[in-house]
């Protein structure tokens, strides 16, 4: 990775670090709005009054959150109405952004090396497993350093 790109990734990983524990968070089946509202013993009418919408409007918002179609603006409005802060982030499923890049680089390198080795085998020039693994590791390092756009194909 070029120094600038490496620095950007390190900074991004640092910014996302506080969110690392969110992988353990299970979103309530009915969504956060419904869960928080009912935990606070707040009626739909009360929340609606804070949002200047009807009880039915609150129901639609809760349903849209539960089925994944709610907008960030709607979530932010609800959070503000009940003195909460909306926090969101996109976090890697496993590890860090740097780990994600490493995994993608290794996957791409493996694909390239195994395809090349297959062609070489057809010409009786194939290489052994140890050499294949070493070549994959070296190519993955090169792909990662160069941050090839093909990493995301």
Automatic annotation (TrEMBL):
Ranges for domain HTH cro/C1-type: 33-89
Pfam families: HTH_3
Gene Ontology MF term list: DNA binding
The organism's place on the tree of life at top rank: Bacteria
UniProt protein name: Mobile mystery protein A
Organism (species): Aureibaculum marinum
Upper taxonomic lineage: Bacteria, Pseudomonadati, Bacteroidota, Flavobacteriia, Flavobacteriales
